[in-house]
Amino acid sequence: MEKFNFNYDYENDDLFIYLEEKKSEGAVELGNFILDFDNKGNLVAMQILNVTEVLSKILSKVKEFSKIKEIEMEIINFRNMDAIKFCISDDKTKEKAVILIPHIKEKSPVLSH
Predict the structure, then answer these.
(1) Quick check: 39 and 112 in contact, CB under 8 A?
(2) Which residue has better confidence, 103 or 88?
């Protein structure tokens, strides 16, 4: 798993997870997730809107996102899906979860101009 940087926006309850050295070439919005990809189709950032509501459905231990200390993620590509495996740590616990998303095969039409 690779360590990602992150920022939590308490006012909007959004969590932005990103790789410092990577550049986004396009984004896809899937519900409460905004996924940023580089020019090779690799995930370089992810924003989770309403993170408390969204992640409370799949995490049982980490509840206060303002106290997150570390986020690690790994993307596993298979057939027409991607599995985003992540591990979130706070002061007291470390918790793992997986999110499945459709595999993005086509570049955004915006990028071709």
Answers:
(1) no
(2) 88
